[in-house]
C-alpha cells in the first residue's frame, strides 16, 4: 500500500501544496531554481504537510490559511535535507544524485539557507506569535540535533538516551510541530494542541527508528543508497547501539569506516539479522506507535482521525 | 575616532544588547557555545543594532521591545559571517582564527544555522506581520546575494550593475532593514519607514564599497587578513571592476589566483593606487552617502539625527 492512499480525500489539497512548493523555490536565479526544483522532483512522502492538513481538519479548515504552514514546514524539512547532504557526504538520496553531487558544497549550503528563508516568508502570513515561537524553537532544536549528530559520530560509548534525544531533535520535533501548527492554524481549541504535538512526536520517533532499521534491512535499490550507510558514516543508530552490546558484533562495528567493503558490511548486517537487535528496535518503534494511538483515542472522533491512525500504523510497517 | 563614540548616549543600551547576544548564543551544547562565543568575542562594530536603536529613537523608544529586533539582526549578520567563512575559505576574519579554522566546515554550517534560528526566536516577540515579512524577505535576498557572489567569482566580464546588485543583497538590504525595523518596532509613523529603509540602504552601499576599497588599501594588520584577499578569492569588487578597464591591469588581475604571491599582489595594488580606480570607487561611495544625508534631512530633527549623520560620515572616512 502506498502512503498517499491513506489520505486520498486530501488529494486536491496536497496537489495544491505541491504546486505551491514548486513556486516557493522558483527564483529569479536560474542556478538556484534548478538546484531546488531538482530536490523537489526527487519527491518525498510529504508527511509534514499531510500532518498539518489532517490536524487542521479538527478545526476550522481553510486551505488558504493552512497551506502556508504546510509549505513552510516541508520547506524546512527540504532545507535540512540539503544541509544534510553537505554534511553527510551522502552520494545519493532517494536514488537521485544529491544537490551536492551536482553542485559543490558551497552552493548546497546557500541553497539550504535560501529554502529556510523562503519557509519563513510563508510563515509571515500567520499572525500568531505562538506559531512563530513553536517554529523557531523547532529550528533551534533541529540545529542542536544536527550538531550533536556530528559530535556523536563514531562514539561507541553513547547510550540509548543520547540516541533518543538526537532523533527527537532531528525528526520527531518537526513532525510534532507539524501536527501542533496545523491545529493552531485552524483554531482547534487550545487544550488539544499538546495532544497533537504528542501524537506527532511519537509517530516521529517511530518513523525515525523505522528509518534506522530500514538502513540495515532494505535493499540498495529501495534505499537509493547502499545498505548500512549510517554505520559507514559513523552514525550510531538504534540497531547498531543494540548490536554494540554483543561482544563480537561490537568489535566488527567499531572497525567500520570508509575502507569497509560491501561484502564486509553485508556480513555485519547478516549477523545483525540473525541476532535480536532488529526485533528489539522494532519493539521500541512499536512502543512509540502505541503511545501515539493512545493519544489519538483522546481526540474527537471524525473521519480524519482514521487517516491519522492509518498513517501511524503505516509508519510501523513501511518497507521503504 | 572610534565609531562607538558616535553613539555614546546609547552606551548602556548597547551593552545590554551585547549581554543579550552572549546569552542568545549560549546553549546547552558546550561545543556550540564555544564556537559561537568565540565569534561574539571577535567583536564587530554592531552597526545593525545601533541602526535599530537610533531609528527607534524617532518613535516610542522602549528598549525591552526594540532589543529583540536589534539582537535578531546582529545574529543574522553573525550567522552570515559564519557561513561566509565556510564559503570563502577565509583563514582569518577580524584577526581571529575563523570558526572554520578551529572546527570543521560541518560544525560551522550548523553553527550558522543555529544562530539564524536563534535570531528567529528573538523575533517571535514582535507581533507584527510586516516586521516578519521584512525580515524573511531580507534573508531571502541575502541568500540570493551569496549565491550570486559564488557564481560571479572570477567572472571578469561582469559589469557595475552586477556588482551593485550583489552588494545591495549582501550588505545594504540588512542595514536598510535594521533602520526600517527599528522604526517599526518603536511605532514611528508609517510614512517615515521607507525613508529609514532608504537611509540604511544608501549607508550600506557606501559601507560595502568602502570595505571593498579597504581590502586593497589597508594593511594586513588592520584588515586581519592579507590585502587583496577579495581578488585572491575571485571576488570582483568595485576597484577591481574599474581596474579591469585598464588593459595592463586587466591582464594582471585575470591571472590572480591561489598561486599569486604577496609580492605580485603588492605590485598590482601599487599600480591600482597609482591609477584612478580607488578615487573613482571613493567617489561612488560618496554619492551613496550624499543620498543618505539628503534622506536624513527629511526626517524630524532631534539629537539622534546627528548620530545618524555622524555614522554616515564615519562610514565614508573609516580607515579600517
From TrEMBL, chains A, B:
EC id: 2.5.1.30
Catalytic activity: 4 isopentenyl diphosphate + (2E,6E)-farnesyl diphosphate = all-trans-heptaprenyl diphosphate + 4 diphosphate
Superkingdom assignment: Bacteria
Record SUPFAM superfamilies: Terpenoid synthases
InterPro entries xrefs: GerC3_HepT, Isoprenoid_synthase_dom_sf, Polyprenyl_synt, Polyprenyl_synt_CS
Biological processes annotated in GO: isoprenoid biosynthetic process
UniProt protein name: Heptaprenyl diphosphate synthase component 2
Lineage: Bacteria, Bacillati, Bacillota, Bacilli, Bacillales
Amino acid at each position: 500500500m502506498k502512503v498517499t492512499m491513506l489520505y486520498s480525500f486530501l488529494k486536491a489539497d496536497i496537489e495544491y501544496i505541491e504546486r505551491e512548493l514548486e513556486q516557493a523555490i522558483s527564483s529569479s536565479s536560474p542556478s538556484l531554481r534548478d538546484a531546488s526544483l531538482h530536490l523537489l522532483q526527487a519527491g518525498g512522502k510529504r508527511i509534514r504537510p499531510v500532518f498539518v492538513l489532517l490536524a487542521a481538519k479538527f478545526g476550522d479548515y481553510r486551505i488558504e490559511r493552512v497551506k502556508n504552514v504546510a509549505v513552510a514546514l516541508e520547506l524546512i524539512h527540504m532545507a535540512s535535507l540539503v544541509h544534510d547532504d553537505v554534511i553527510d557526504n551522502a552520494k545519493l538520496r532517494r536514488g537521485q544524485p544529491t544537490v551536492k553531487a551536482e553542485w559543490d558544497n558551497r552552493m548546497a549550503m546557500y541553497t539550504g539557507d535560501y529554502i529556510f528563508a523562503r519557509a519563513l516568508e510563508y510563515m509571515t502570513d500567520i499572525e500568531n506569535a505562538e506559531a512563530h515561537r513553536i517554529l523557531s524553537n523547532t529550528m533551534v532544536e533541529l540545529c542542536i540535533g544536527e550538531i550533536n549528530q556530528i559530535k556523536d559520530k563514531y562514539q561507541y560509548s553513547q547510550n540509548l538516551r543520547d540516541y533518543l534525544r538526537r532523533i527527537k531533535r532531528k525528526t520527531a520535533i518537526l513532525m510534532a510541530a507539524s501536527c501542533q501548527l496545523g491545529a493552531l492554524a485552524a483554531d482547534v481549541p487550545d487544550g488539544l494542541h499538546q495532544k497533537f504535538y504528542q501524537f506527532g512526536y511519537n509517530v516521529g520517533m517511530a518513523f525515525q527508528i523505522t528509518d534506522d532499521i530500514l538502513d540495515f534491512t532494505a535493499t540498495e535499490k529501495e534505499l537509493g543508497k547502499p545498505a548500512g550507510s549510517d554505520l559507514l558514516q559513523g552514525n550510531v543508530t538504534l540497531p547498531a547501539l543494540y548490536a554494540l552490546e554483543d561482544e563480537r558484533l561490537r568489535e566488527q562495528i567499531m572497525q567500520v569506516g570508509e575502507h569497509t567493503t560491501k561484502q564486509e558490511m553485508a556480513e555485519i548486517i547478516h549477523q545483525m539479522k540473525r541476532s535480536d537487535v532488529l526485533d528489539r528496535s522494532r519493539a521500541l518503534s512499536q512502543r512509540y506507535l502505541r503511545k501515539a494511538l493512545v493519544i489519538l483515542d483522546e481526540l474527537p472522533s471524525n473521519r480524519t482521525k482514521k487517516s491519522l491512525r492509518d498513517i501511524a500504523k503505516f509508519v510501523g510497517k513501511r518497507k521503504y
